[in-house]
Amino acid sequence: MTATAKETVVHLLRHGEVHNPDGVLYGRLPNFHLSEIGKAMAERVAKTLVGRDITHLVASPLERTQETARPSAEAFGLDIVTDDRVIEAANAFEGQQFGPGNGSLRRPSTWRYLYNPFRPSWGEPYRDIVVRMLAAMHDAREAAAGHEALIVSHQQPVWMARSYVEGRRLWHDPRQRQCSLASLTTFTYAGDTVVSVAYSEPAADLVPVRADKKFTAGA
Is residue 1 situated within a structural domain? Predict the structure, then answer.
């Protein structure tokens, strides 16, 4: 590594479990907070990160990410920088129960949103998510140059960023994302080039068995 190519690490953290008794796709809707398990997940992540060199902390504006970021902010003595670019993907089915087994796929009113899984037609284009996530990661990397940054975001945006960096196609089966609740997807940069991507689940033992098995178009 050259003297000008500083190693910088950017962690993308998915938020913890959300209190969602009605099982709706909450997307960007307000007033969805962490459950008690979700709060424990956030605390676990903060404890796991102690000893890391985190100097910059970013979170999406939604309550669940802000609450997930809070224990890490306290552990590192950092302010939370709110960045709209790392928000959840927009989705036409926000506020609805949606998925196999609940009849939603048989309703004619939903079909107009399902004609193109490659864009996707039900929400924000995959490429738009990649563009905004990479821009936010670039700024976080610059803010933490030579150190580490933590960005608290959502499953789909994290998976889109990783898929793009690792050269995978963007359209995919949401059930196959490797991005569990409170998981860390870690990008190591040499200068402005990603040289490695790692994945870990510091709160794996706290994840409810069914939490990541149902269909979601982002969480």
Answer: no
**CATH for 143:** 3.40.50.1240
From first to last of the 219 residues of the chain, give the pLDDT tens digit. Answer: 454 578 999 999 999 999 999 889 999 999 999 999 999 999 999 999 999 999 999 999 999 999 999 999 999 999 999 999 999 999 877 878 765 555 455 565 665 656 567 678 678 999 999 999 999 999 999 999 999 999 999 999 999 999 999 999 998 888 889 999 999 999 999 999 999 999 999 999 999 876 444 444 346
pTM to 2 decimal places: 0.88
Domain with 29 in it: 7-206
Whether 214 maps to a domain, the answer reads: no
Biggest CA-to-CA distance, the chain: 60
> Alpha-carbon distance 74 to 148, whole Å?
16
CA distance 66 to 151: 10
CA separation for the pair 75, 27 (Å, rounded): 28
In a domain, 53, yes or no: yes
3-state SS, one letter per residue, for 95-133: CCCCCCCCCHHHCHHHHCCCCCCCCCCCECCHHHHHHHH
Comparing CA positions, the residue from 51, 85, 48 lying closest to residue 65 is: 85
In a domain, 30, yes or no: yes
Helices and strands in the chain: count of H runs, count of E runs: 5, 6
- How far, rounded to the nearest angstrom, does the alpha carbon of residue 174 sit from its chain's CA centroid? 13
The number of distinct structural domains making up the chain is 1
| Paired tokens of 127 | 């490429």
